[in-house]
Amino acid sequence: MSVSINGIAHIYITVRDFDAALPFYRHLLNFFEMRCLVETEDLYYCVGGRTGVGIRRARHPEPFDQYRAGLHHLCFRARSTADVDAIARKVEPFGGRIVNPPREDDWAPGYYSVLFEDPCGTRLEVNHVPGKGNFSPDVQLPLPEEMQQRLSEP
Hints:
The protein is α/β, with parallel strands linked by helices. It has one domain: 2,3-Dihydroxybiphenyl 1,2-Dioxygenase, domain 1, CATH 3.10.180. The chain has helices at residues 18-31, 81-94, 145-152; strands spanning 10-15, 35-39, 43-48, 51-57, 74-77, 97-104, 112-117, 123-128. The termini are far apart.
């Protein structure tokens, strides 16, 4: 027997500098049309888009390293490439840093994304995949080995 999940209910990101990250996430999550559920000295948590996102003050503040055990990056799904572009235009005014500007990639047919960092260096991505993406009957899974190797490179 197996279970078919219905998405990700919520995620918490522990941030090195809560006070520096909070304004960024207030702007970003509001721009995502998420609503604040909790805002305390240690937690900012919003809901919307069938998920929840929280940032929490770190007990042991250390710089983010996406290759250390734990979170590599978090990717939000946008409804269109225009939404990806709109978010990309807001990242720097909100206090973040663009790592890769909006572009197509080979993760799925039509995959389009922007990769950026919050003020603490945590990697975030917003993507759009049209249609069924890798669930299309035209896509053979797993992906060809050469593509898997290329996509696995840091």
